[in-house]
Here is the input.
Amino acid sequence: MTIDRGVESARRALRVAFGVVPFLAGLDKFFNLLADWPRYLSPAAEAILPVTGQTFMYFAGVVEMVVGLAILTRWTVIGSYVAAAWLVAIAVNLVASRNFLDVAVRDLVMATAAYTLARLTEASESSRALAAVPIEANADRTRLGRVA
Here is the structure.
């Protein structure tokens, strides 16, 4: 296996994981089968919300499902960046609650993986676009790059 194939297979695995898992976790915000999701809200966050914790979780569920679908479709990069930011926000909330610190650490690791997916996808799309440029045009760009 070449490094390019290995990196691409890792990128695809991350894409599937970050597409399916947020979608299913978001869907579960409406059923609370995997967890009692409102328990994960810090008291400080709950105090400033204009809605109940469960209502906020419905909103969070919709966001997570949209992000999951974005990652699985042509919006992988933006969806991955949103997932990374979302996971950092969740970790901050968990640290503020002084509960579920293990989950906060896990979410920070997942945020790093989501960021990695975004960067790998950008690199993959860039290399595919460069490969589509005719050889003559590619040679011209190389000469231009040396002059500039």
